[in-house]
Design brief:
The protein contains three helices and ten strands, in the order ββααββββαββββ. With 212 residues, the protein is α+β, with helices and mostly antiparallel strands. The structure holds Phenylacetyl coenzyme A (FAQ). This is Acyl-coenzyme A thioesterase PaaI-like protein.
């Protein structure tokens, strides 16, 4: 059953959490393999004729996966045990090879933190993380912070960032916290950087929508 709330589609599922976890392991392995393929596609130096042969085999694998597929995006699924899974999400999706993926952890003192490894697929300026990617990760983390443990829905209203220094590809750390709240507005602050230094500071107004 799919329930449409505001702009989002949430699908109720009868899958028990144990089965969700089992399936997640299966897809984690596939997604990790595809992520490796993305990185290898960028960095491979094998001769051109081998590239053509790999292309044919990748197309065949894609056809095999497409033989049975959803009519649209994955959406957010949830069961009666309170487990939800958004495996298509561009930042945290366990079946999305574009997602690093980012795993969210509790931040001491409140809010959330995360550590991700950003490789060649996230490059903007040479050797550096694309500025849009850093804001993508920050937006997601800050949205989750604003939701206060999924207690409420929040959507990004306004997001601003200050790029204080370039972010090299490699390990990246993020943290975000609620600065204050005014009615339906949740003011969230966050930082992103290397394990040694903050490179981006972000401020966001996350809104609890009128329809929520
Ligand atoms: C929902 C809303 C943002 C606001 O609509 P309504 O509910 O009708 O709001 P209403 O007009 O009743 O004003 C209430 C109060 O709020 C204020 N205010 C209003 N707007 C803004 C503003 N832009 N910026 C700042 N403040 C604003 C307004 O002045 C008023 O303040 P007041 O009480 O007078 O002091 C709507 O414009 C929308 O859907 N925009 C698209 C959002 C979208 O697509 N975002 C991207 C996808 S989410 C994502 O990717 C991240 C994510 C990841 C993971 C997890 C979670 C998140």
């Amino acid at each position: 059953m799919t329930e449409v709330i505001g702009l989002s589609a949430f699908a109720h599922s009868d899958l028990p959490t144990e089965e969700v976890e089992r399936q997640q392991e299966v897809y984690d392995a596939l997604t990790d393999a595809v992520r490796g393929l993305v990185d290898a596609t960028i960095r491979s130096t094998v001769p051109e004729e081998r590239i053509r042969s790999v292309e044919e085999r990748v197309r065949a694998l894609t056809e095999e996966l497409r033989s049975e597929q959803l009519p649209g995006p994955f959406g957010i699924h949830y069961n009666d045990e309170g487990r939800s899974w958004n495996w298509g999400n561009v930042v945290v999706g366990r079946r999305n090879a574009i997602a690093p993926p980012m795993e969210l952890l509790e931040r001491p003192g409140g809010g959330l933190r995360a550590q991700v490894e950003l490789g060649a697929a996230y490059e903007g300026p040479p050797g550096l993380v694309h500025g849009g990617v850093t804001m993508l990760l920050l937006d997601h983390l800050m949205g989750e912070v604003g939701s206060d443990g999924h207690r409420r829905v929040t959507m990004t209203g306004t997001l601003t960032g200050r790029y204080a220094a370039p972010t090299p590809l490699g390990p990246v750390v993020l943290e975000g916290w609620i600065a204050r709240e005014e009615g339906r507005k949740v003011f969230v602050e966050a930082t992103l950087g290397t394990p040694e230094a903050v490179t981006v500071e972000a401020h966001g107004v996350f809104i609890i929508p009128s329809w929520a």
